[in-house]
Write a structure and sequence with these properties.
The structure is a single chain. The chain is 13% helix and 41% strand. The longest helix has 20 residues, at 248-267. It has helices at residues 3-16, 248-267, and strands at residues 27-29, 61-77, 80-90, 96-99, 113-118, 127-145, 153-161, 167-176, 180-198, 218-227, 237-238. The protein has two helices and eleven strands. It has one domain. Strands 1, 2, 3, 4, 5, 6, 7, 8, 9, 10 and 11 form an eleven-stranded mixed β-sheet that branches. Strand 2 and strand 3 form a beta hairpin.
Length: 268
């Protein structure tokens, strides 16, 4: 299929995914078209690429590189000051959109482009974040690693947080080269952002204490999909609470309503 026909199909896909009213729709970021549906001509090499940050802000999503810093707590823990790792936004390291003709030697999932990271370049953070301007209930993304020497087992950790920075839930996965994987989950608690970490053992209890991947390594992501809880397909696992409990005031109202109905029935 030539590039002209591909670009028209990408634009058509974009237009079909835009909401025509108040009803929520699934959003797909395929890295082949920009936020306005225009085809992206991506470079083959990182040296000509630009970090992906706010290019899709108009579609409710931005991307942030994270760095892990050690901070000593002011509150003693067991008689000593506690040192902990925290993830903070970084000005460098975020991945970039590349054409499938790059040194990854892998085909894009859809179209010609994907979001790429490489530990040997300035686009090689071990931690990054997908931010949603309007919280979501369904998250999905595909990923694969590069060919030798940027190959091997790559453990990944996905952590979803609410708008109050509280952890909703986490999912581990790993990708063996050459292979492609998909991470998908849904949550009744609105997801404000998802942290993604590279080379993380599933035996670690938290992303903050995990060991970053050693160079060389390369990972690429494609087709970020998100929407409401109800948009998730069959088989998509749920993270976080399975049901939202009613507040005490609601139970009090229901109890009063039942009592009133019982009184009316008795009077009749």
């Amino acid at each position: 299929m030539n590039h002209v026909i591909k670009n028209k199909l990408y634009a058509l896909t974009f237009l079909c995914s835009v909401s025509s009213g108040a009803q929520a729709v699934i959003t797909t970021i395929n890295f082949d078209v920009d936020a306005n549906g225009n085809a992206i001509t991506a470079p083959d090499l990182f040296s000509a690429a630009t970090s992906l940050t706010t290019q899709y802000a108009a579609r409710n999503v931005t991307f942030t590189a994270l760095e892990r810093n050690s901070i000593t707590s002011d509150v003693p823990h067991n008689g000593v000051l506690k040192t902990q790792n925290v993830l903070e936004p970084s000005s460098t390291g975020m991945g970039a959109i590349l054409d499938e003709g790059s040194a990854f030697a892998r085909s894009a999932l859809s179209g010609d482009n994907f979001l790429a990271f490489n530990g040997a370049t300035d686009f090689g953070t071990n931690f990054w974040r997908v931010n949603f301007a309007d919280p979501i209930g369904y998250f999905q993304i595909d990923y694969f690693n590069g060919q030798p020497p940027n190959a091997g087992r790559d453990d990944l950790l996905f952590e979803a947080f609410d708008s109050n920075d509280r952890l909703i839930g986490r999912r581990y996965d790993h990708v063996l080269s050459p292979s492609s994987n998909r991470m998908a989950f849904k949550s009744l608690t609105d997801i404000a952002y998802v942290n993604i970490g590279h080379e993380l053992s599933p035996y670690y209890s938290t992303l903050l204490t995990a060991t970053p991947q050693s160079t060389p390594w390369a990972l690429a992501y494609d087709d970020l999909v998100f929407g409401e809880f109800s948009d998730a397909g069959n088989g998509v696992s749920q993270i976080g609470p399975s049901a939202v409990p009613l507040p005490a005031s609601a139970w009090l109202f229901i109890s009063g309503l039942l009592g009133f109905c019982g009184l009316r029935k008795k009077q009749q």
